Amino acid sequence: MKKKMRILAPVLALTLALSACGGGSGGNGGKTETPNTGTAGGGTTTNTEAKDTITALLPPVSANFQDSFAQLEKDFNALYPNLTLKIEPASWEDMTQKLDTQVNAGSPPDLAFIGSGGLSKYVEQGMLMDITDTVTKEMTDDYDATPLEYMKLGNSLYGLPAYMEVHALGGNKQFLEEAGIDYKKVQKEGWTYEEFREAIKKGVVKEGDQTKRYGFVFATSGVTSKDYLNILVKNAGMPDAIDKDLKYAYTSKNFLGVLKAIREMIDDGSMPKELSSVDAGKRWNMFLTGQTMITGKGLATFENSANKNNEKIKANDGSAVQGSIPVDYIVLPVPTFLGQEPKSSVAVDGYVAFRGKKDPTPEHKANVVKAAYFLSSGKVAATTNNDLFAAHITKSGREAAKDMTINRNPDNVAAVEVLLSHATPARPDIPTDLGAKSIKLEDEVMIPKLQALIAGEITPEEMYDALKSAAIQAFGEDGIVKD
Questions:
Q1: CB 280: neighbour CB atoms within 10 A?
Q2: Which residue from 74, 341, 60 is spatially nearest to 192, judged by alpha carbons?
Q3: pTM of the complete model beyond 0.90
Q4: pLDDT per residue as tens digits for the range 98-121
Q5: For residue range 449-474, what is the model confidence (pLDDT) as tens digits?
Q6: Domain locations in the chain as residue ranges
Q7: Which fold has domain 168-332?
C-alpha cells in the first residue's frame, strides 16, 4: 500500500547493485544440505548450510517499516545463521527509478517490494524469477488464495504478497454530517457518480470568491499520477486494461464517460483547478487541515495516520501537521459510473523475486524464497499490516496479531469488508506481452494525456482519441474494444 504504496538516485543505485550482484546472480553458489522452510516466527537450520546473502530493495511500506530494517536483518540471521539479509532502503518516489536502474544494469536485488501490476513489465524483460518449483506447500498454504493469485502470471509465481489493500475514498465525518450525507448508508450500499457529484458540491465552502473547502481532492501528481483514473475506470465496467477477450479495454465509450466526469468535477468547483499539482503529501495535508471534505486515494492506514495526528493535536506538543484540525476518518467507496457494478481497486503488493543475467543456483533460489516468506508472514507481516490497518492475509500473521492492539472505527472495518467483497479478481491469464504493452501505453500516452486533461489543456474527447489511436498501433484494429 502503499504508497502506495509505491516508488528511488541512479548512480547510487547502480553502485549498490553492482556491489550486491552476487545475491542477484546466485549468491555464493553454496550448497544447502537441508532446505528449511521455516516460519517467520521461528525455525531451525543446520550448521552445514553454506553461507549466502539475499539482497532486498524495500520502500517505507508502513510508517515504522524502514526503522525496523536492522532488526529484520538480525532476526532473519537468527532464524537462518548461514544467511544474511541485506536490505537497501528506498523512498516511494524513487523506488521505480532505482529498481529499473539495477534491472537495466543486469544486477537487480534478489527481492523488491512492488505492486503485482508491475509483474508483466519485468517478466517481459526476463528479469523475474519463477519460484513455483521452490516455494513449499507449507508456505503457500499460509496465504489467502486471492492475494497469492495476484503474484502470478500464467502458471508462474513470482513473489509472495504482503497485503491486499482496497483503494477507497476517505471522508471527514464532521463535514459529511454537516453536508447532510448519510455516510453509513453509502458505506453499505455505495453511490453512483451522479449521487457522489451532488454530495461533493454540498461539501464546498466559499468565502466570497475564494474556496475555503473543496468537496473532493485526489492526488494526481508524482507517484500518484496513475491512481485516479485507474481507480475510477474499474467502477465503469473496465476492471482491467485487458478484458476477458484479451482486448485493450480503454477504447470503450465508458472510458470517455469517465474522462468527462473528471473534467466536470473540476469545472463545477467541487475540485481545485490546480488539481494537477496536488501530490500525495499535499492531498493529505489538505484533508488534515480541513481544506477538503473527501480525499482520495484512501487507504486503511489513513485512519491510523489521522488518529495519530489527533493525538498530537490533543497533546499540543507541536508535532502535529501545521494548521491541522481533529479529524474522524471515514472510509467511503468510489462511485460507480454509467450503471456499472462496483469493482473495488485493490493493491496487492509484495516481495517479488528478481534474477540477474545468470540463472541463480537452486540453493540461492531457495534462500531468496525463505527471505520473501520471512518478510511477508508471521510477526513481520502482522506488525507491518497493523501499522497499515490492513487486513492480514496469512494464517501466521493473524496468529501473531492476536496479541497486538489496534484501534479502528468498526464502521470502517465493515466498510472495507464490503469493498473487498467487490474486489477485482486477479488476472494471471493476461499474456505478458499484452500486459507489458498496456503498461507502456499507460506510461507514454495515458498518464501524460490525463495530466493535460486535468490541467485543462485538452478535452476529454481529445484524450480519448489520442489513446485510441495509440492503442490501435499497439494492439491492432482487432485487439481493442469497440462498442
A1: 21
A2: 341
A3: no
A4: 999 999 999 999 999 999 988 989
A5: 999 999 999 999 999 999 999 999 99
A6: 10-164+348-421, 168-332
A7: D-Maltodextrin-Binding Protein; domain 2 (3.40.190)
